[in-house]
Amino acid sequence: MSGASFSKASKISWEEYYGAIEGRPLRALFVDAVPFLPTQSQDDQALVAVDLGCGDGTETLALLARGWTVIAVDGARSDRTPSRLCRA
Q1: Which 8-state DSSP code applies to residue 72?
Q2: What Cα–Cα distance (Å) separates residue 4 from each residue in 12, 50, 76, 79?
Q3: Residue 64 and residue 50: Cα distance in Å, rounded?
Q4: Dist. CA 26–CA 34, nearest whole Å
């Protein structure tokens, strides 16, 4: 990212960012990785993932739908974060 792009991007609030990406598809890297993810554990333990910087939770929700237990963490929690991803 160029210095000018970074400067412009750094002035956007997290609320504006989440609003801009709302309804986005799964990220290409995630889609490319899915075929390599196990669908069940070898020892009957839960499949667990940690989603650091989960943002709007799009990939977290996709993992949950595939039966994974996901620890989703983001330092910039937003009102747009799906409530089913949050614990009080």
Answers
A1: E
A2: 13, 32, 23, 29
A3: 12
A4: 11
Asked if 59 contacts 27 with a C-beta cutoff of 8 angstroms, the reply is yes
Alpha carbon distance 42, 71 (integer Å): 20
| Tens digits of residue pLDDT in 22-79 | 889 999 999 999 999 998 888 888 999 999 988 888 999 999 999 999 998 887 766 6
pLDDT at 86: 56
- Quote the CA–CA distance of 83 and 49 in Å, as a whole number: 19
Residue 50's DSSP bridge partners are: 71
Phi, psi (rounded to 5 degrees) for 35:
-60, -20
- Beta partners for 73? 52
Higher pLDDT, 38 or 13: 38
Side-chain-side CA neighbours of 49 within 13 Å: the count stands at 23
Record the tokens describing residue 25, joined without a space: 């598809």
